[in-house]
Amino acid sequence: MQTVRDKCFAKCITKPGSSLSGSESSCISRCVERYIEATGIISRALFNAPR
Amino acid sequence: MDPSALNSPELERFLSEEKERAMVNEMVAKLTSACWDKCITSAPGSKLSSSESSCLSNCAHRYMDMSLIIMKRFQSMN
User: Fold this and answer.
1) Which of A23, A26, A31, B64 has its Cβ near the most Cβ atoms within 10 Å?
2) Whether B57 and A3 lie within 8 Å, measured CB to CB
3) Can you give the pLDDT at residue A36?
4) Are A46 and B59 a contacting pair at CB < 8 A?
């Protein structure tokens, strides 16, 4: 949780304004989705792929 | 609760399985974090690109290769 928050904050909020912009919020939701996808790839790589 | 249940073999097995699961989850989380930094360089899109996914998968595999090398090196110390 904490990690995803830090990663996506770094990626999406590059220049904090007075409120979250629309593009920032959509970046955040995409970022969280991609992080979950990445977690799946890593665990598959660790546990069921041979090479 | 029956106090003798506290050292039952079932409980012990359950606990060690849970510990293992926790370790695995922690490992996946750590690797995802490290490989994310190496592989996801652009702004997140609507799907991971194929080069990003293969980078992530390579990253996990190379981490395992590396662990093995380090383990072997330490084993040869004594």
Assistant:
1) A31
2) no
3) 96
4) no
